[in-house]
Amino acid sequence: MTFRLSQCAALGAFLLVHAMPIASAAPRVVVYTSVDDVFARPIAELFTKKTGIEVQLVPDTEETKSTGLLNRLIAEKNRPQADVFWSGDPVRAQVLKLKGVATAYQSPNAAELPKAYGDPEGYWTGFSARVRVILYNTTLIANEHAPKSIFDLANDPTLRGRVCIANPLFGTTSMHAAALFVALGDQQARDYFEGLTRNGVKMVSSNGEVRRRVGEGDCAAGIADSDDANEVVKDKKPVGIVYPDENGIGTLIVPNATVLIAHGPDLENGKRFIDFLLTPETERALADSDAAQIPLLPNVPTPPQMRAIGQLHPMHVDYGKLALKLDDLSRGYLREWAAKNSR
Amino acid sequence: MISCEILEKPGWWRTVSLVAILFLSLAPTFLLLWAAVGEGSLPFTSGFAAAMWHSVVVAAAVTLMSLVAGLPAGLLSALYEFPGRQILLALMAIPLLAPSFLWAIGLSQVRIELGLPSGSPLLAAISTVVAFLAPSFPLVTYITLVSARRLSKGQVDAVRLAGGERLLFICAARAVLPAGLIAAVLAGILTLSDPGPGQIFGYTGTAYEILVSFSASYDFVLAAQQCAVLTAVVLILAVPVAIFIAPGIAAEILGKQIDPAPLTRNKRAGWITIGLLAGMLLLTTALPLAGIIRPLFGDFPAARAFAEISRTIGDTLLYAVTAGTIATAMGFWMALAAGREKRLKRLALAAVFLVLALPPSVNALGMVELGTIAPSWLDPLLRSRFTVGLTLALRFLPIAALIAMRSFGVTSPSQCLVGAVHGVTLSLFLRRVLGPAMFPAAVTACMIIALEATAEVGTVLLLRPPGADSIPVQIFTVMANAPEALVAALCSFYIAGAATLLTLGWMFAGRIRSV
User: Fold this and answer.
1) Helix axis angle, A186-198 relative to A333-341, nearest 10°?
2) In B282-378, which residue ranges form alpha helices assigned H by DSSP?
3) CB contact at 8 A, B2 and B430
4) B27 and B100 belong to one structural domain
5) Chain A contacts in chain B segment 249-278 (CB below 8 A)
6) Which of A14, A75, A213 comes nearest B368 by C-beta?
7) Which partner from A59, A251, A305, B188 sits 20 to 30 angstroms from B18, CA to CA?
């Protein structure tokens, strides 16, 4: 057996060929998204179909096991590859604003959207929303005894050791935690989290894990997003859904948020994609998807299994403040809480 | 013309090469660590000490258990022929193909099915260890197997005549212990940088703390400092091991006949090996796999899963091949540079432990930073699919380096010296003598790295160019909200395809060369 120069050359050529960037003659827009691939990809394909602009999607997940695209966006700040960040929640969008990664863009299609779910300066715009809900296993908890408030999960002794929530340092659970601190004040929110600990809450890795555990009966109840709820019901698991605190602090609304990346390679196509995301067509598609997202535009029908935005009692929070609060919490109290409850 | 003698003589090129490879491997990380230098804050967040303890416990348990099971399994597989040998050994590789969190989710599902409690810290620790054992068992088994196949026919026959199979096992185990131990230590160290299973079972370690610093606080400096502490701990723990195994590696410098002993049939040994391999497969592969594919019994969205696999399979293979090729090339260069000098070997061992201890996200993010500050004409190198393969190669370079060092250790220096006397050039010696002698080790290294690289999600997630996902990344990004059946179908297609390819590849390799 001998090694020839030609074999080495062939190997070198193979590596070189693949070093080449993925070239495409068609106009394109690069979209980083923390919205789950199964929901984001059909929207991207719809956009391509309508405009002829190819969408190169780079999806992430809200699961806690990744370092995340947000870090990539921050690291790429000086020479970004992305044109748009489509976030599953407004907090990450606000982080990009604070880190100087986002640029302001007031889409003409945003006029009809409620101002409460967008950045007043136009650095991000909210659209189709999910809500934070309580899931409960109907074989373990009768419907009439289902928890009605997130505070029941911390205070109800019958739920002791039977509740799970996702790690509050990540994803929409972190946003929910920050919202509670903003809405309730620090002391009351801390009391709530301490109550959860006393009531033996199980901290799991993600909302998906909450969904799985409640669906399988490993936990009697838990807090997750409405799309998780819709999936678990669709999987025919014995799970009931509660919109919590309708007579109290209200239910947290989690709109999607779209961000135009400053100095992105193609700002014009980025703007066109954002315009498309804010159309009734996109909201309808997201409502019809398995995510069953709740439209924020007035004339788009809400999926039948969900409540319309007007029928909800929303938790009143300034989404712009949540990022700073979360930054503070994730270095301090929530980090300690998570460390204490992960053992 | 350079004489082949250079390979057996001291020279400045050795140290320069080692330092260059080490620098290349760590350059992206240096970018991030640089920011941490001069910062006054301490990396010890609340819970960091406990997390460190958890990490050490898990790493130690994985090291010990993978050695206890993997070493005899690898050794027996190297000495005996038994029914289903090729298939069992090929199936052992399956866990190397999938990210550890996937096995953890499968095990978690099994725990729920069995009605075991989730709150127990002991069960959480055990589950975390079992999830990590999935890729550790094959790593130790394979490296031990390759090492044991380097025992010569003469050695094996002599020991067999002197004391039968029992003595053969004991002597062979002693001979392969350094290789098995180093593989087990590598497996243990790899657990330190992976936060997945610990999070899923609620037994979080330092990797989780670093992840929180990165992903929740976006605090690169804190994360870098925590990485530095973790690396220091790894080095403190690994240096005694390196000193312990150094004599074993040094002993292999002696020239040996490298024709392997033929596999023999021994009913008892065969059944023991089958039991060991099957037991490991059951615990680390079949059990979690049962949990993963359980949702398929209700629904099987084959078409959609097939479409997703078709979209991503090309880039998956590309990343794996690129990583395997580059890491193997660099690892063998490293081995030649370290040569037979103890001091350089120890330097190389310290370097590989250092590289392995770093969480993959750190190097990947460093590479992202590097791509950002570099001019755009460097994009094909720093912002392409090649970049993903390169970063994965840098991550798994230590595996190639260790296999290569061992492979070089068992070649005879006299061949080179005789060649030099007869005027053989370096190039000719590499092509005609050393290359073919080290070829099986190179193939092994390339395959193991390709498998490990396929399973690595963090790096691909951060570095993939738009539109170039790998299959595990695709599974990872859909698993949060896709129907369980789709995730299960994707996993099934992926694992079944990989297992088929592995089995065919292994059987083909077995035909052309008794590995």
Assistant:
1) 0
2) 287-293, 302-338, 342-357, 360-373
3) no
4) no
5) none
6) A75
7) B188
B37: its two tokens: 């230098």
Angle, nearest 10°, between helix axes A37-51 and A267-277?
110
Looking at the fold, whether B383 and B270 belong to one and the same domain comes out as: no
Q: How far is CA B235 from CA B239, B353, B499, in A?
A: 6, 7, 36
Of A19, A72, A330, the CB nearest to B217: A330
- Residues of chain A with Cβ-Cβ distance to B318 below 8 Å are 18
Q: What angle do CA A17, A20, A22 make, to 5 degrees?
A: 115
Q: At what angle do helices A171-184 and A207-216 cross, to 10 degrees?
A: 100
Rounded to whole angstroms, the Cα distance separating B434 from B253 reads: 14
Query: Does the beta-carbon distance from B214 to A67 stay under 8 Å?
Result: yes
Residue in B42, B481, B484 to test binding to A, most A beta-carbons within 10 Å: B481
Q: Which of A67, A74, A79, A214 to mutate to test the interface with B (most CBs of B within 10 A)?
A: A67
Chain B CB within 8 Å of residue A48 CB: no
B282 and B347 together in one domain: no
Q: In whole angstroms, give the CA distance from residue B155 to residue B175.
A: 11
For residue A65, is pLDDT > 50? no
DSSP state letter for B297: G
pLDDT at A1 over 80: no
* Beta bridge mates, A225: A132
Residue of A nearest to B305 (CA): A38
Whether residue B478 lies within 8 A of chain A, CB to CB, comes out as yes
Architecture per CATH, A26-129+253-311:
3-Layer(aba) Sandwich (3.40)
Please tell me the distance from the alpha carbon of residue B475 to that of residue B376, in angstroms, as a whole number: 31
Which domain range does residue B222 map to? 46-254+265-292
Estimate to the nearest angstrom the gap between the alpha carbon of B193 and the chain centroid: 13
Whether complex ipTM tops 0.90: no
Show Cβ contacts of residue B240 under 8 Å, excluding neighbours closer than 6 positions: none
Q: What is the pLDDT of residues B266-311, one digit of tens each?
A: 888 889 999 999 998 888 888 888 888 777 776 777 787 888 888 8
Q: Tell me whether residues B384 and A218 touch, CB distance under 8 A.
A: no
User: In angstroms, rounded to a whole number, what is the distance separating the alpha carbons of residues B147 and B249?
Assistant: 11
For residue B450, being part of any structural domain is answered with yes
Q: Domain holding B446: CATH number?
A: 1.10.3720.10
CATH of domain A130-252+323-341: 3.40.190.10
Closest CA to A109 of A93, A98, A120, A125: A125
Question: What mean pLDDT is reported for chain A?
Answer: 89
| Of residues A174, A213, A228, nearest to B481 (C-beta) | A228
Q: How far apart are CA A18 and CA B316, in angstroms?
A: 12
- B346-358: buried (b, 16+ CB within 10 Å) or exposed (e) per residue? bbbbebbbbbbbb
- Which of A79-93, A280-294, B397-411 shows the lowest per-residue confidence on average (mean pLDDT)? B397-411
| Residue A61 sits at the chain B interface (C-beta within 8 Å) | yes
